[in-house]
Design goal:
- The chain has one domain.
- The two termini are 28 Å apart.
- By secondary structure, the protein is mostly helical.
- 89% of the residues lie in helices and 0% in strands.
């Protein structure tokens, strides 16, 4: 039964990936609207937390209140705003890319042996790839293409993952 679920999820991911590639602006708009809605819900939760912690810590309560207001404003701004979503996605990719490059360079100089140098070199290469992807993420069409390709690859990968592998991962992640 679980194997059937994997195949069903894989088919669904591939179909969604094809739809995202076929209708890029609608797909990015949908993701932007969902992200904005989720951030607004987070802001509401932070506001609720601010009232709940008022008696215990006024400083924490004020921090929750400020973060909640900022999250609600950001969520409203992000809701359905394709260019803002693309901008934030590309900024995030740039940030991760620079982090990978810097940590890769540090690994090249700090680690000894082939494996250490290899992991450092791989960090630099992946960082450069992230920066290249960040450049393409500025355009909503390319962002939708990247999301669609990821969904298709993930969907195809689900065809090859056995349910016992997933169950083994879940058991190994449980605290002892």
């Amino acid at each position: 039964m679980a194997e059937g679920n994997n195949i069903l999820l894989g088919i669904l991911a591939v179909i969604l990936g094809i739809l995202v590639i076929a209708f890029p602006l609608f797909s990015v708009f949908t993701v932007s609207a969902l992200a904005g809605f989720a951030i607004m819900l987070l802001g509401i939760w932070l506001l609720v937390q601010s009232f709940g912690t008022w008696g215990a810590s006024k400083a924490a309560s004020i921090a929750y209140l400020i973060l909640g207001i900022i999250a609600i404003i950001c969520g409203i701004g992000l809701f359905g705003h394709i260019l803002l979503f693309s901008f934030l996605a590309s900024i995030w990719l740039y940030f991760v890319g620079f982090f990978l490059i810097i940590s890769g360079i540090m690994s090249l100089f700090a680690k000894e042996g082939t494996a250490g140098k290899g992991s450092g070199g791989m960090g630099v290469i992946l960082g450069i790839l992230y920066i290249i992807l960040g450049t393409y993420a500025w355009d909503p069409y390319y962002l939708a293409l990247l999301i669609g390709i990821w969904l298709i690859i993930d969907g195809i990968a689900l065809f090859f993952v056995s349910p016992s592998d997933l169950a083994g991962m879940e058991k190994s992640e449980m605290p002892k």
